[in-house]
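Re: Re: ligand-bound prediction request (bumping)

Still looking for help on this. To restate: I need the protein modeled with 6-O-phosphono-beta-D-glucopyranose bound, output as structure tokens. Inputs repeated here so nobody has to scroll up.
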Amino acid sequence: MSSNIDLVIFGARGDLAKRKLLPALYQLDKAGLLPDSTRVAAVARENIDTVEFIKHTSELFKGLYGEDNWDEKVWSRFSRRLHYIKVDFSQKKEFSGLKQWIVDKRTMIYYLATPPSLFGSICKHLDDAGCVTPTSRIVLEKPIGHDLQSSEQVNGAVGQYFDEGNIYRIDHYLGKETVQNLLALRFANRMINSQWDNSCIDHVQITAAETVGIEGRWSYYDKVGQLRDMVQNHLLQLLCMVAMEPPSSLKADEIRAEKVKLLRALRPICGDSVEEHAVRGQYSAGWISGSPVVGYMEEEGCESDSSNNETYVALKVHIDNWRWAGVLFYLRTGKRMQDKVTQVVIVYKDNPHSLFPETEGEANNKLVIRLQPNEGIELEMVSKKQSLKERLKTEKRTLNLDFFDSSGESRIADAYERLLLEVMKGDQWLFVSRDEIEASWHWCDRLLASWRDKKVATKPYSAGSWGPSRAEILIENDNRSWQEE
Ligand code: BG6
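Reply:
Sorry for the wait, this slipped through. Here it is.
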């Protein structure tokens, strides 16, 4: 990585900067992964100065890591990198302060942790102020648009000032260790990749269940819904990593090209297939971990009498290509579900003939790729039960590859640490290309339009459950069931 790098965070006083970006940079510094000369400009509208910003940041970190774990040496090195620059993003003239901070010939990384509606104008003002050079990089947070048309507008506006090779679109799921491990698991293990198709795999389940609700963002979320918030980006990216063809190398372009092909092979869910292939849900009041929680319509910030917005989605997806013909991919994601679980389960086909009656009717082999909690991979297998009394009785056993135990590290890096590091290295392999974003919106738009045209109502589910009963039916119709239950 070049050591000639500076970083500018737009929206440095916002939630993302506080929860993820500043802590991630601090951790990178602590791990010795930030170049010595790298400076960080925190840019926001608030009228404070660098001294005050550093004070707020030290309080933030003390809250996060605890006074006992405070490392004064790391903090003093990190805090010397920080500069606060007050900029009203809508005012072109205010960008001159930032321009003065920039040192010639250094690579600038602009991280836009701002509402996407500002992306275009920030890029324009940066360019007008002379802050953009052919080496400048820009990092964009989701959502990039709310449909294909608006995402094209955002991409077009940013693309006027930055080449595609310098645009880093974040999907934080790609920063998770287990998601990256999918590449190693699939493409480094002959045993796995030779059986990764419709001859061996019965079906795949991808689940991203959350226990949190709307978290004070009701009026935003009510215009978005779970399909746009989680499926269009995170779940489809996971699906790509599970189902794409092997890239010819691990170069960013090769990986991203395979993901685009996969997204284009997704069979549309629209018209008459909607009811059979998609379920929308909305949570009502219930219990999570023994405490009562309110329903979606009673959440703080709700100002409507009714809403048909979905907080849960379950989908049955077909991939129309040679490898996956006949294999169903079941995707589901929801707020206020029983547990926080993000995982991919690969369910293998039964044997053609069974020698062990006790294993009949159930998949013998399942590969569980767990993103959270407890990142790791488990392979369920059938093994002989150790016993003298029984002749040859079998039981299910699990081979466990626990990331945390095996890594030897005291912690697993947060997704943003990895992503920031890759931006600094100038490697786009964990970022989403324009073609990917647009292909996934194209697919989601058709489903959203069908829901709208057919006036598909959300099905209620109690907070703390696994979603609406209609989602059980979606999978039970195929004689299968969701994995946690
Ligand atoms: C975000 C969504 O992108 O991902 C949130 O906007 C969601 O609604 C979050 O809660 C989930 O991320 P994670 O890493 O906790 O699964």
